[in-house]
Each structure stands twice: as structure tokens, then as C-alpha cells.
Amino acid sequence: MARPFSGIQIWNSFLTIIPYFGVTLGVVLGTVLLGLLLAILLFVWKLSHRRFLNRLSDVYINIIRCTPSIVLLFIVYYGIPKLFLGLFNADLNFAPKIIYVIISLSLIYSASLAEIMRSVYLAMGKAQYEAALSVGLSPFQAVFRIMLPQGLVIALPNLGNSLIALFKEGSLAFTIGLIDMMGQGNLIISRNYGAYSLETYIALAIIYWALTLIIEEIFHQLEKKLSPQKSAAGGKA
């Protein structure tokens, strides 16, 4: 017998799901840190004069872009334990699932982040860096006082979009058994034998919608703060 739609169940599902926000946030933060390191490496390879490193970076980015996220997640989840078992005779079958999620999402995030870095570098060019050196700044000062603030403003919209996409991609973690917000939502549905599925997914949609709005607002405020020209124009208006 079908159950009638229950608005109260949306609220109940929300209260049950939201405590698992910490797991989702942990996945995102771990992915950002590891993905950033990988992206810097890819970016350096992109700028390298060695053709092999250029090609290796291009091949990596193309392969990652062409591989569905859920397929990559399963490759990492099933592949790493087999690799470590074959090479080091180490059993990783009982390793925390969050590690596999972070690794797989970092591979995806690093590819997009490396392309963002490359586009910012091409947009800025070497002229400002060389000009900063000519007035007596050290290479470190030229990067962190001249290049980085301007590059960050250029990259912010794409960084915000990639972070939003990362939150949504992280919802795939439940497919390997990690209990994050999406995983808890599916547990609620299972415990109710499929009942209140619509209400539970509406609660999840509201949470992800709210997170998206918060991230967009944070990056919007950062862009206003870090862009003097936009701030000045806003003040005159």
C-alpha cells in the first residue's frame, strides 16, 4: 500500500541526515588538499620543457576527464587493494572507505584544478612577473604579492564551480558503503522498506542546494574583497 506524501518526514529525514555532514565535509577537505598537491604537480609538468612530462600530464588529464566518476571510484576501491596485495602482500580490504573516496575524487579534482591553473597562467602572462623582478622584488615576493592575488581573482569563479561539483561528486561515496549524507539518506529509505523515498531525497536536495548557495556566496564575497576595481565600482554605485 502506497504511503501518502509526508512533509513531516522531510524534516525528520533532514534531522537524521545532517549529523553526517561532517563525513561529507571530511571527504571534500581531504580531496581539496590531496587534489591541490596533484594539480600543482600536473601544472609544473605542463610548463616543463621536457616533452615527456608535457605529454604525461596531457594523457593523465584526458583519461581522467573521459572516465565517469563512479567508474573511477570502483577502479580505485577494487584496484588499490589488489595492487598492494600483489606488490607488498598487504591486505587493505579493511582500510577506511573514506580513503578510497578521497583518492578517487582527488584524481578527478586535480585534473580540473590543473587546467584552471594553466588558464590563469596564460591569462596573466610573464610580463607582470618580470616587471616585479625589475623593480627589485624577489621571485617569492613577485609570486605572492603580485601574481597570486591577481591570479586568485581570475580563478575564483572556476574554483567555486569546481568545489560545488566536488560536493555533488562526493555523494557517490555511498556506492562503496561510506555512510555520509547520501549514504545515511539511503539507509533511511532501506529501514523504511522503500517508503518515504521522495521525502528523503527532497531533504537531501535541500541540504545540497543550501550548501551550493553558501559556497557561491562565500566565493562571491571573496571575489569582491580581492578585486579592488569591482569593490570601488560597487562603492561608487
Summarize the structure.
This protein has helices spanning 7-17, 21-47, 51-66, 69-88, 97-124, 127-134, 139-169, 181-191, 197-226, 228-236. By secondary structure, it is mostly helical.
* Spatial separation of the terminal alpha carbons: 60 Å
Radius of gyration: 22 Å
Overall number of strands: 0
Fraction of helical residues: over 70%
- Mean pLDDT across all amino acids: 87
How would you describe the shape?
Answer: flat
Strand content: under 5%
Question: Uncertain runs with pLDDT below 50, 5 residues or more?
Answer: 230-237
Structural class: mainly alpha
Descriptors for this entry?
237 residues, mainly alpha
Explain this structure to me?
With 237 residues, the chain is mostly helical. The protein contains 10 helices and no strands. α6 (127-134) packs antiparallel against α7. The longest helix is centred in the middle third of the chain and has 31 residues, at 139-169. The radius of gyration is 22 Å and the shape is flat. The N and C termini lie far apart (60 Å).
Task: Give the topology, please.
Elements: H1 7-17, H2 21-47, H3 51-66, H4 69-88, H5 97-124, H6 127-134, H7 139-169, H8 181-191, H9 197-226, H10 228-236
Helix pairs in contact: 1-9, 2-3, 2-5, 3-5, 4-5, 5-7, 6-7, 7-9, 8-9
